[in-house]
Amino acid sequence: MRFLKRQSDLSNYAFLPIFPLKNPEGWREIDIHECGESLVPLSAVSPDQIVVDSWYYKEGYSNAMKECCVRETVAQQLCKASEMLPMGWKIVIFDAWRSLELQQQIFEKYKAKLKRKYPEFSKHKLNQEVQKYVSLPSSNSSSPSPHVSGGAVDLSLRDDSGKNLDMGTEFDTFYDESYTRYYESKLEQDGKLSRREQKWLENRRILFHALTCVGFTNFPEEWWHFDYGNQFWARIKGKEAIYGITSFNENRAICKRSLAHRKES
């Protein structure tokens, strides 16, 4: 896919379909050659183009941070994507790097929700269903959860009026409608969409193409989830992963310096 050079180009992507996506199944088998990049706080990267709106922090998760951090190259690629958006639009970050403790908390909370909904599920079946949407917390250096690597980011778009674009579902709602291509498939099957569904389809296309044209991959079951450098990304791209498990404690000084620089400037 060619690299977009003008902001006006991206609006044309509302009319370019999202073709069938690869699933990262088997991602744990991918080798990781850790590149050693640090985590950087996104609020300090490009506040005019990227907005941090830490969802789990706002929802009261005790292990969540107000800041969202990603690896250095991930931050750079997000900036490139934001530069191609229509004038005044921004990327909104809901979640990025997670501690193992937060990954565990998210996993257990969704597991409890499913258990209430499907009390007949066996323990094995329940864990299988949870892992369709939330990765099993893992401190295994050869197969860390995607968000623990600092290479996964959950996001959306905000228009020039300050309103988040409507994508047809809210962030972190695990329904069939949350699949990235849900409205593409519906259009293919039915031959038409309602006016609202057509808008949701176009908004997803703009988000998808803005991120994938700068190298990100999308997790097909979540329109908001994109990866760069981790095992999900490597599996889909046919490459080696460059991001393994990383800790905020190891990067705390760097994050503090970046935030301090933002305040001074």
Task: Explain this structure.
- This protein is an alpha+beta fold and 265 residues long.
- It contains 9 helices and 7 strands.
- It has one domain (7-264): 2-Layer Sandwich (Muramoyl-pentapeptide Carboxypeptidase, domain 2).
- It has helices spanning 7-11, 55-58, 72-83, 100-117, 123-130, 182-190, 195-212, 231-237, 248-264, and strands spanning 39-41, 50-52, 69-71, 90-95, 152-158, 217-218, 225-227.
- The strands form 2 sheets. Strands 2-4-5-7-6 form a 5-stranded mixed sheet, sandwiched between helices. It has a two-stranded antiparallel ribbon with strand order 1-3.
- The longest helix has 18 residues, at 100-117.
- It starts with 6 loop residues before the first helix and ends with a helix.
- Mean pLDDT is 90; it is low at 1-8 and 256-265.
Q: How would you sum up the major sheet?
A: 5 strands, mixed
Domains (count): 1
CATH architecture descriptor text: 2-Layer Sandwich
SSE string: HEEHEHEHHEHHEEHH
Low-confidence stretches: 1-8, 256-265
Total E-strand runs: 7
Q: End-to-end distance, in Å?
A: 36 Å
Rg measurement, Å = 18 Å
Kindly report the CATH topology. Answer: Muramoyl-pentapeptide Carboxypeptidase, domain 2
Q: Approximately what portion of the residues adopt beta-strand conformation?
A: 5-15%
Q: For this structure, what is the CATH class?
A: Alpha Beta
Mean pLDDT: 90
* Total number of helices: 9
Structural class: alpha+beta
The share of residues in helices is: 25-40%
Indicate the overall shape: globular
